[in-house]
Amino acid sequence: MTQTEWMRYILDLAHKAITKRIRNKDKERQESATLLTKQLPTTKEVMKVIIAMLYWAEGSKGYEVVKFANTDPRLCLLFITTLRSCFDLDEAKFRIGIHLQQHHQEEDEKTFWSNLLRIPLSQFNKTVWKKTPNTGKRYRKNYHGICFVKYNSVNLQKEIMVYAYALGAKF
Length: 171
What we know:
Number of helices: 5
């Protein structure tokens, strides 16, 4: 065995060990999350606090609309699901905007976000394309761009921010 072959062999073993360790940790986290999910309170007040925290961190602080942006599909789904469960909303007021990079397939990504968030494609705004220079970096396979969840209501935005500022004042 040459020195190069030996190094490849060692690196391959290390890669396999690290991959196995990551899978085990992910499995443990998922099991813990499943147990914790059963214990979490889901009252409207708790859900409004969740919305306020998410919005305070990832939402627009302007006063025109509720506008939440994130790349993580689970956070976008959590935000829109809790919003729907806490407030009487007009579904026609939702708009979805997505920012994509050149390697994305626009229709696939729009369909992904539409199915996940249960918003019809007719309520999607024009896609914004990020001009990316060729840096040679690889792209994440599970990256679906940036999703902007918008709901046209000044009053709802104010109510969410009141909760957020109340949380900030309390702690």
